[in-house]
C-alpha cells in the first residue's frame, strides 16, 4: 500500500505542498550509511515524500544518495518530488560558519 496519496499536506507560501507526515532520520547509534540508504529508498517506495535530517545526524549524505537511487529506480521523477528539512546545528551558528554549513547541507 502506498502512503503518498493518503498523507495530507499543507500548501506552503512558496507554492510547494508539504506532507504533514514525514520520516525523521535521527537515531543512535547511527547505522552504516548503506543501511540508511536502503531504509530511505524503502520509505520513498512506500510513499514518504518528507524527510527531516541534520548534519549532526550524519544522515544528509545518505538521504541524498537515497533520493538519487530512488530516481534511478524510477520510484520518483526527481528531487523536486521530495521535501527535505534540515537544521543548522548549534556549533555552526556563528556568523562565520553559517554559510559554509548551509552549503554543505545543500550539497
From TrEMBL:
The molecular function terms in GO held by this entry are:
oxidoreductase activity
Alphabetical list of InterPro entries matching this protein: AKR (IPR020471), Aldo/ket_reductase_CS (IPR018170), NAD(P)_OxRdtase_dom_sf (IPR036812), NADP_OxRdtase_dom (IPR023210)
PANTHER family the record matches: ALDO/KETO REDUCTASE (PTHR11732)
User: In which domain of life is the source organism classified?
Assistant: Eukaryota
**Which intervals hold domain NADP-dependent oxidoreductase?**
21-107
Any idea what this protein is called? NADP-dependent oxidoreductase domain-containing protein
Amino acid at each position: 500500500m502506498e502512503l503518498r496519496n493518503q498523507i495530507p499536506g499543507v500548501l506552503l507560501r512558496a507554492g510547494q505542498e508539504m506532507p504533514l507526515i514525514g520520516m525523521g532520520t535521527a537515531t543512535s547509534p547511527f547505522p552504516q550509511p548503506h543501511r540508511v540508504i536502503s531504509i530511505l529508498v524503502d520509505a520513498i517506495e512506500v510513499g514518504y515524500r518528507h524527510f527531516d535530517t541534520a548534519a549532526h545526524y550524519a544522515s544528509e549524505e545518505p538521504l541524498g544518495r537515497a533520493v538519487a537511487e530512488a530516481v534511478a529506480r524510477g520510484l520518483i521523477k526527481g528531487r523536486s518530488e521530495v521535501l527535505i528539512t534540515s537544521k543548522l546545528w548549534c556549533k555552526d551558528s556563528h556568523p562565520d560558519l553559517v554559510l559554509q554549513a548551509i552549503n554543505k547541507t545543500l550539497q
